[in-house]
Structure formats: structure tokens, C-alpha cells
Design goal:
With 81 residues, the chain is mainly α. The protein contains three helices and no strands.
């Protein structure tokens, strides 16, 4: 399929030099670059947050039904907060 792509003159000149060095065409370089980019993007794994939980049996017994103010007080207890 034919299509038109606008690129800066300097980039085209560099692509022509590279194509000549590699004994290929600018079209070949573009096709190769697009395939590589598409493959890289497709093979990327989605970000996964690593497990970062702490050992124990959950919140302290007195906090199960506590308010956030109560939790905050416990967190900063003895730390001047």
C-alpha cells in the first residue's frame, strides 16, 4: 500500500545514508523500524505493583471499628504527631 509521510529533510538525508550503508532502501528502513516498534510495544508487559503487605493478622483489635482519627493517633503515637 502506498502512503505519504512527511519527515524533516535532515532525517530523510540521514535515512538515505543509512540505507546506502546497509544496501537497502529508505522504504525498507521505515518498514523495519515500524515492525520493530510495534513488536516492542506489543511485548511490553503491563505494570504490576509488587506485593507490599506486611506480616501479621491485620489491624490491631481495638481499631477494627475505629475511625481514621483513631488510626492516625495510633500511627503517630510517641512521635510528636
Amino acid at each position: 500500500m502506498k502512503t505519504t509521510v512527511e519527515i524533516p529533510d535532515s532525517l530523510l538525508a540521514e535515512a538515505k545514508r543509512l540505507a546506502a550503508q546497509q544496501r537497502t532502501t529508505v522504504r525498507g528502513l521505515i518498514e523495519q523500524a515500524l515492525r520493530r516498534l510495534i513488536q516492542e510495544r506489543a511485548s511490553r508487559t503491563r505494570f504490576r505493583l509488587r506485593p507490599a503487605s506486611f506480616p501479621g493478622s491485620g489491624v490491631q483489635s481495638g481499631v477494627r471499628e475505629g475511625s481514621w482519627e483513631q488510626v492516625r493517633e495510633l500511627i503517630y503515637e510517641g512521635r510528636g504527631g
